Fold:
Amino acid sequence: MHYFFSMFSLLAIIGHVSGQVTEGRSERSIDRDNGSELTVSNGMSWGSWGLKSMCPSGWYAAGFSLKVERPIGAGDDTALNGIRLLCVDRSKGSSGSHERHASIESDLGHWGEWTDIKWCHSGFLKAFQLRVESHQGFAYDDMAANNIRFTCSDGFLLQGDGTAWGDWGNWSPKCKGTGICGTQTRIEAPQGSGDDTALNDVRMFCCD
Structure:
């Protein structure tokens, strides 16, 4: 448990959705139909839901990266600030080289740096688990979501390089179709001299 000290003059957040193939061509597919929605029960409720962002048609998420603010000591920590999915073309196979991929993300928090990409050995992301710090009460620092795990089609577990506050909740259901193909995040905008939490919750979408 750690005490919260307010920060001043924080910059405004600019939430955005992107989909970019490594060659630089936009491949985002906002209107792609999804077969089901995956949720977990331990997300926090500060902030608002951003736009849904989907892999290009026929592409599925085979990896991910996180935007994380590392512990800053006696200050206002926000931990997990963003989740980026890396989508690959199903017709090209789901293992081996991922040189050509599309990155997608829903809204992002303002702080932190992107971690290295974690890739499935084969197949696609199928389910997720969120590590969340519950409400800490008055005068303590809230951070909400801290880290995420995914399982792949072959059962391999990928754990993000997030922070360690809070507890792991229950796993989401598994995609019944091919795999995860989209994401949507709940982000709290900067609170000025108040307590910032950044990413609070996430939904994933499955496609056949």
